[in-house]
Amino acid sequence: MPSPSAQVPSSVVVVGAGLAGAQTAAALRKHGFEGRLTVLGAEGLPPYDRPPLSKELLKRTEPVWLADDLGIDLTALADDLRLADPATRLEADRERVVVRTASGDDVVADAVVLACGSVPVRPAGWDAAATLHTAADAERLRAAVVPGIRLVVVGAGWIGAEIAGVAAGGGARVTVVEAGPVPLERQLGRKVGGLLSPWYDDAGVTLVTGVAVDEVLPRPGDAAEGGSMRLADGRVLEADLVLAAVGARPASGWLAGSLPLEANGGLRVNRAGRFMGVRSPTDPAGRLHLDALRRIWAVGDIATRDHPVFGPVPGGHWSAALHDPEVTVRALLGLDERPAEPEHVRERLGLAPVPRHAPYVFSQQLGHDLALFGVPSPFDDVVLRGAHVSDDKRRNGHSSGGWAALYLENALDRHPRRTSDGHRVATVRAMLLVDSPREVGQVRKLMNRGVPLEVDLDRALDPALKLKDAVIRG
Ligand SMILES: Cc1cc2nc3c(=O)[nH]c(=O)nc-3n(C[C@H](O)[C@H](O)[C@H](O)COP(=O)(O)OP(=O)(O)OC[C@H]3O[C@@H](n4cnc5c(N)ncnc54)[C@H](O)[C@@H]3O)c2cc1C
After folding, report:
1. Interacting residues of 255 by C-beta distance below 8 A, sequence separation 6+
2. pTM for this structure?
3. Ligand 1 atom 30 nearest Cα
4. Tell me: the pLDDT tens digits for 8-58?
5. CATH number at residue 391
6. Partner of 325 for a Cys bridge, out of 23, 34, 198, 355, CB 3.0 to 4.6 A?
7. CA 241 – CA 243 distance, rounded (Å)
8. CATH number for the domain including 257?
9. How far is the CA of 323 from the centre of ligand 1 (A)?
């Protein structure tokens, strides 16, 4: 039952037909929304899953459709489904929202859920580089990655690493150029990134670090993507194909005149996914009226969503696009009172806890499985659990086995805290599991509890013990 104070919308427009948009549409119907539902997409395709585009580039010739994978059929859920009529403008006032589409139509509704995801970053001067974000990109890339091709991937991030390994496995001659000193430095920090560097060599990929790309030059007289590239140190690398894998940013360009955006282009939403409309440098019209704000929601990659433990978390997590629409839709329909309140307030009010998923990224790269829970910060102390093996031993045929990196929020040496038996106490801000599939389930449970995770560090670093047995609070 909606709460008595809630104004339940009788029409909703969902912008974006990806994972978050599909989950939103499914949750609306699941929770009894009988009003008019419009879904706008941009790619002309029904929703599909993006992670396999890189991980299974050469194996899969068809996208993994969400209709098969999650049973979400937008044609059955939406009254008006337009998969190739993207939104171009949003206006919101106290009475309604109006979404203008590329075909010139105005879709009028009581509420809008913005689920338009992200777009790959392509720096100026890189027009000749390919990117991988959509099924159409994957199809082009698959056709181009043939044995012997010289592929240069710019960026040793999640997607760059995945593609490099897959393409090398398919016989391509792959070089990865990374501006940072180690792979994934921005995401995992220098210490852990350094542990991943040898994986490139092992997979037959050349890794060039510490040098930026200035320009991607097309092959003379050839429209194909990438011919060579000029590096900041003056070197020129020849390539048959250049792939830019230097990150993604929220697909919010079309909203810039309507809503205040975060510096990264994201939409700042509260824990329930409701747009907060905070003043920002891009704010076109100052604060929107509260009754207009109540009509705007955002989920998935486009949203920077408040989390009780991690604070504002920018999008870019598949798991957020999967899970957050449920909480958002319940709030939008007035089925959950005060979904954005801290848990202790909800408890006092007799309200059930709201599921809070920790940010989660998974990756299969260069022959390794990674699972990252939480948000590492450059200020964290990083400690390793398990059998990370030195380079020498690895070259001599020792397997590194599974290991984990724990990102600790409090500096142990400066503020020591101890258990009653003298063990060090630490708060885990993030945890990276490498080649440890059996630990993923328990770590997910621990990190999803919605409170800071405190561990007995001496126990947590003993791989013979289960991590859950090291928990003090969380
Ligand atoms: C190659 C690849 C591999 C990935 N691997 C992983 C992984 O291993 N682990 C992980 O956690 N995450 C991964 N991700 C990220 C993950 O796929 C995203 O976090 C997830 O897809 C976000 O879902 P979304 O619905 O918010 O956005 P999207 O999936 O991007 O869907 C948004 C949709 O909205 C459409 N759209 C955009 N603008 C408009 C508009 N104005 N009007 C209408 N429609 C619009 C877009 O075309 C798109 O179809 C990967 C992403 C890529 C590209």
Report:
1. 90, 114, 261, 267
2. 0.92
3. 117
4. 899 999 999 999 999 999 999 999 999 999 999 999 999 999 999 999 999
5. 3.30.390.30
6. 23
7. 7
8. 3.50.50.60
9. 14
